[in-house]
Write a structure and sequence with these properties.
Blueprint (H helix, E strand, L loop, with lengths): L1 H13 L3 H10 L3 H8 L17 H11 L4 H16 L8 H10 L11 H12 L3 H11 L4 H19 L16 H18 L20 H11 L16 H29 L10 E6 L4 H11 L7 E6 L9 H14 L7 E4 L4 E4 L8 H15 L10 H7 L20 H5 L3 H12 L4 H5 L4 E6 L2 E6 L14 H13 L4 H14 L10 H9 L6 H7 L1 E3 L6 H12 L2 H12 L15 E4 L9 E3 L4 E4 L5 H13 L8
Parallel strand pairs: 1-2, 7-8, 8-10
Antiparallel strand pairs: 3-4, 5-6, 9-10
Helix pairs in contact: 2-5, 3-6, 5-7, 6-8, 7-10, 8-10, 9-10, 13-15, 15-21, 16-22, 25-26
Length: 645
């Protein structure tokens, strides 16, 4: 490496590229030469997944210098790669061959569309390797630096995008001749995605694998191809859901939901007509009639009675009120119901202040139907594109996708997933910390902690004990078995102790969202679909805001945006919560909120008022920025409870 860098440095003064040219000519001439140049020890076999045996710094230096060399050197490298790829293979690939693929994949020349034909052949050869070879590559990929890993992912995403929508179609062979390009690139991306998920924390966020170009193709055709052919010979991007953005997945789920809604509504209509009954428009909807005073019980009764209608469009009526549901009453129903069910006094969920989230109460009860109701609510929210103000930990969504489709065998357990101290930490950080301390304790665990394989829980003021394994009360926790103890403890808290509660919740959610499209989602993406995204962009909100009684150039409105854009994040979140009922943003971004500011022709001594059901802020015409800021902060900081007019 030192010699190579010195040769490159000398060129600056001499202008003679011969030595550097010879290096590239020799190194990229064949797979054995690549190994000879870049292996840390040419005589060692390096047959482990943990160490590729490649001098990564040298590879990076050679590639970084390559782009600054004359064109003839760059062409020499490409020619060498072509010859290597055209070599006739006999027998299985060796670890040296895998190393060569690993090195060539990092070549920055493949950013250029003129090299795509060569790049495609390289990708095909890597994609068609046997599973054992892929296993090695995945583990080598995870050792790359974040910068180089991200470059590999971006290069592959760009390759797919430009093959789908080429700037100059004549640059590439006709699509019929290279239909294998995109499947090969997707398969290699899948290897990188696997590598990324093996590292904690991941090298790059999962969202960096999204290919936004796919938002512009016929996603439903991709989905139906996948539905019909699964993961067989017929390619569909749905086989590689990690490249489909959450916005695109939402479109697939909504269209799938709409088709199910239309199908069920049509069937209702056909049934009525076949029985010679007069069709009624109400039969096309899931009509909820509830009393405000009996909100939970009425909702539960209605949803139980109308179980067959859950996949119809939701419409809510409050008994004794004349309001027509144009979306506002539905949202109000969700807001009020969620607030009531999650209230600590209700006893279904426990709020953990340390982690700002709710978790299922483990208290035993005779009827778990209300947990089913919460699951149905979440399903209806996804189905009807409503963002809920629910604070569940990520582990909840992992359990909700375990499995993503209701199993045909009713005895198969649902909502059970592998849980770790990381999952527990997101709910009960202090307890998770205590268990981690136990695992790393250097003294004598049995003598110092004096614990057994038992869990103690308070239920209605009585301390109850549960064995973590048969005879657990007589098995001491020792240095040797403490890992098993911690794993059983976490599994008890997050799986076993709440199994019936969570199973009811799981079946409720899937009774509405019974769609194969759920198989495309990560747990984090289900959370975003249900609760929205925590990423706020107040400039985007400003651009999409509608006005009633004000113009966007009015002084009060200019004061308002000056104040809001200057707010710290916590106040911006409070404003969003004050006006919409949630401090999170729907999947489609701020524009999907349909946020409106209306003129409130009242005294400027009054505070602003919000109609959360319509995402509407009623703002008096304050005369000064100072007055507006003061009143707005008071309003958004003291807005608990509904003032329904």
């Amino acid at each position: 490496m030192k010699d190579f860098l010195e040769d490159v440095e000398k060129v600056k003064s001499s202008g003679d590229w011969k030595t550097v040219h010879d290096f590239y000519l020799t190194t990229f001439d064949s797979f054995p030469e690549l190994n000879g140049a870049f292996k840390k020890d040419a005589s060692a076999s390096f047959n482990t997944i943990e160490d590729s045996g490649i001098n990564a710094k040298f590879v990076n230096a050679v590639y970084d210098a390559l782009l600054n060399t004359p064109q003839d050197i760059q062409k020499t490298v490409l020619k060498g790669i072509i010859n290597s790829l055209l070599r006739e293979w006999k027998g299985p690939r060796t670890k040296d061959d895998l190393r060569a693929y690993f090195i060539l994949l990092q070549n920055p020349q493949f950013n250029n569309t003129s090299t795509y034909v060569i790049y495609a052949h390289l990708l095909r050869q890597i994609a068609t390797l046997v599973e054992a070879d892929h296993h090695f590559l995945v583990h080598w990929f995870k050792k790359l630096s974040q910068k180089r890993f991200k470059q590999l992912v971006e290069r592959l995403l760009q390759f797919i995008s430009l093959r789908l929508f080429p700037a100059k179609p004549e640059e590439f062979p006709p699509i019929s001749k290279c239909s294998w390009w995109i499947p090969s690139a997707s398969k290699v991306l899948a290897l990188l995605n696997s590598a990324n998920s093996l590292v904690h924390p991941p090298l790059i966020p999962y969202t960096d694998f999204y290919n936004s170009t796919l938002d512009h193709i016929d996603l439903m055709e991709e989905y139906h191809t996948w539905q019909s052919f699964g993961n067989s010979h017929r390619f569909s991007f749905c086989q590689y859901p990690f490249v489909i953005s959450i916005a695109a997945k939402k479109i697939i789920i909504q269209r799938d939901s709409e088709q199910q809604m239309i199908s069920i509504a049509r069937q209702s209509l056909v049934d009525k007509v076949s029985r010679r009954q007069r069709p009624d428009m109400n039969m096309l909807f899931l009509n909820m009639k509830v009393r405000r005073t009996h909100l939970v019980s009425d909702s539960l009764d209605e949803l139980t009675r109308k179980r067959a209608d859950l996949k119809k469009k939701l419409k809510v009526t409050f008994v004794g009120e004349a309001g027509l549901d144009m979306g506002g009453l539905t949202k109000e129903w969700f807001l009020l119901l969620i607030r009531q069910i999650f209230h600590p006094d209700y006893g279904m969920f426990t709020y953990h202040k340390d982690s700002y989230c709710h978790w299922f109460s483990s208290f035993k009860c005779d009827n778990y139907s209300e947990f089913r109701l919460v699951g149905i609510l979440m399903g209806l929210a996804v189905y009807n594109s409503i963002t809920l103000d629910i604070r569940f930990p990520p582990c909840c969504y992992k359990k909700l996708l375990s499995p993503p489709i209701i199993p045909s065998d009713q005895n198969t357990p649902v909502g059970i997933c592998n849980v770790t101290t990381d999952d527990l930490c997101q709910i009960m950080p202090e307890l998770a910390h205590g268990l981690s301390e136990l695992l790393s304790y250097e003294g004598n665990v049995e003598e110092d902690f004096f614990s057994t394989f038992q869990v103690f829980q308070e239920e209605f003021g009585i301390i109850k004990s549960y064995n973590l394994k048969p005879g657990g009360d007589k098995i001491p926790v020792t240095n040797q078995n403490r890992k098993e103890y911690v794993q059983l403890y976490i599994d008890f808290l997050l799986n076993k102790s709440i199994y019936k509660q969570f199973a009811a919740f799981y079946y409720g959610f899937h009774s509405v969202c019974a769609s194969n499209a759920l198989m495309l989602l990560r747990p984090e993406e289900v959370e975003i679909l249900v609760c929205g995204s925590p990423e706020l962009d107040m400039h985007a909100l400003q651009r999409s805001t509608q006005y009633d009684g004000y113009a966007k150039t009015d002084l009060t409105i200019r004061y308002f945006w000056d104040v809001v854009l200057g707010f710290p994040l916590d106040l911006q979140k409070k404003l969003l919560h004050f006006t919409t009922g949630s401090d999170r943003v729907p999947v489609g971004g701020m524009a999907d909120l349909n946020f409106k500011i209306s003129k409130n022709e009242t005294s400027t001594n009054w505070l602003p008022v919000a109609h959360t059901c319509f995402n509407q802020l009623c703002l008096p015409p304050y005369k000064s920025k100072k007055d507006l800021k003061q009143k707005l902060i008071i309003g958004i900081s003291n807005s608990e409870g509904f003032g329904l007019e």
